[in-house]
Amino acid sequence: MTDFDLERLGDMWRQEPDPAEMAALRRTAETVARRARRDQFTDSALAVIVSAIVLVLALTNPNPETLMVGGAAIALMLYSSIRQRHFRKLELKSLAGSTEEMIDQSIARIEATVKRTRLGLIGSVPAMIIGIGFGAVLDRGAGSGLLARFAAEPWLPIIVALAGIAIVSASFVHYARAIRRDRNELERLVALREAFKQESESSFS
Amino acid sequence: MATISDIAEGKQPPFERIVADHGALITRIAMSYEADPALREDLTQQILLAVWQALPSYRADASLKTFIARIAQNRSISFVAKQVRQPPTAEIPDKLEADDPNPEESAIDASERRALLEATRRLPVPQREVIVLVLEGFSYAEISDMLSIAPNALALRLSRAKAALKAMLEQRR
User: Fold this and answer.
1) What residues have CB less than 8 Å from B135, skipping those under 6 apart?
2) Phi, psi of B137, deg, nearest 5
3) From A149, A152, A160, B143, which residue has the greatest number of CB atoms within 10 Å?
């Protein structure tokens, strides 16, 4: 095939698409832009609402607990917003860079996600047991008699145990699926990286 | 089309105008990576969203077309990596022939375009990204810069891609 042939193929390739298809693309773009603007607005509105609620609560009920909970809510919101922006910035930077850089960053991101999910999977049962234990200690300390109610109603522990088993099973299924999906994506990305590596190596051999 | 001086002065072209100017490029890149129409619609949305989000970070050190092509290619490759691959199917929206003065010639043209697209989709990703950029009319220097590869490595990769494309197109005849 000569370069002339490729030029001809290029002319054919770049033919203007069907106007109906371009109209559909414009509609898709409008939807995407509208959704993105709405998400930006929702984020800002949410921040304003949370801050306003905290301010009102702090003014109407000025005690250390209110300030602590309100401060924690704002800190959590800020942390999640900064983290989200940071990840989006990294992702956009990798999208505007070279393909191999993008693949490497995607691999690193998914490996970290798999590690986090695996930790979540391993930690979910002990976390639940610790949570129940902590709740029981608090309950006993507060003297609210939840444990006594458990002893009085024989069906209550069974329902709670069944609910716990259902939650733990659902979490296991969720985590296992997430790990399998991420591993599959990781395999495909590693294969892609290998393909690029082989292509580069054969260029220099 | 947005000029470099517009962008250098901080005047970002509106998103709608970018879509009008470069929408066809985005559509063709999405088509060269995804054959399934429903998945391609999803991919196109993801590319448009990435372009929308990345626009504020665009600096006029490269053309806007290059910037958009880079995002579209990388988003398509990561999209492909996420999908459990199905064998590529023959699907391409061709121009409608009803208002064409020469329907026979148009049908041959559409068939050739379809063959080219199918062959491009079958290329390994490293070769596909090069051939798509060449077909889109980017210069070798621009492609070399976009992919961060040396010109001689690009020439070799392109030569392999051309050979593979030629073999696939000839096989169809």
Assistant:
1) A6, A9, A10, A13, A14, B116, B120
2) 95, 15
3) B143
Among candidate residues B83, B167, B87, the one with its CA nearest the CA of residue B119: B167
Q: Show pLDDT as tens, one digit a residue, over chain B (173 residues).
A: 545 445 445 455 688 889 999 999 999 999 999 999 999 999 999 999 999 999 888 887 778 999 999 999 999 999 988 876 544 443 444 443 334 445 565 666 778 888 999 999 999 999 999 999 999 999 999 999 999 999 999 999 999 999 999 999 888 76
Which amino acid is present at B8? Answer: A
Question: Cα–Cα distance between A204 and A198 in angstroms, integer?
Answer: 10
Chain B stretch 53-82, residues whose beta carbon is closer than 8 A to a beta carbon of chain A = 53-54, 57, 67, 70-71, 73-75, 77-78, 80-82
- Positive or negative: CA dihedral B64, B70, B75, B80: positive
Measured between its terminal Cα atoms, the distance across chain B in Å is 39
The amino acid occupying position B169 is L
Which pTM was predicted? 0.77
In angstroms, rounded to a whole number, what is the distance separating the alpha carbons of residues B71 and B50? Answer: 7
Classify each residue of B67-86 as buried b or exposed e, where b means 16 or more C-beta atoms within 10 Å of its C-beta.
bbbbbbbbbbbbbbbbbeee
**B contacts of A100 (beta carbons < 8 Å):** 148
Tell me the ipTM for this assembly.
0.78
Say if CB A163 and CB A203 are below 8 A apart.
Answer: no
Any CB–CB contact under 8 A between B157 and chain A? yes
Distance of alpha carbon A203 from alpha carbon A111, whole angstroms: 29
C-beta neighbour count of B48 within 10 angstroms:
28
Consecutive H or E run containing B152: helix B151-172
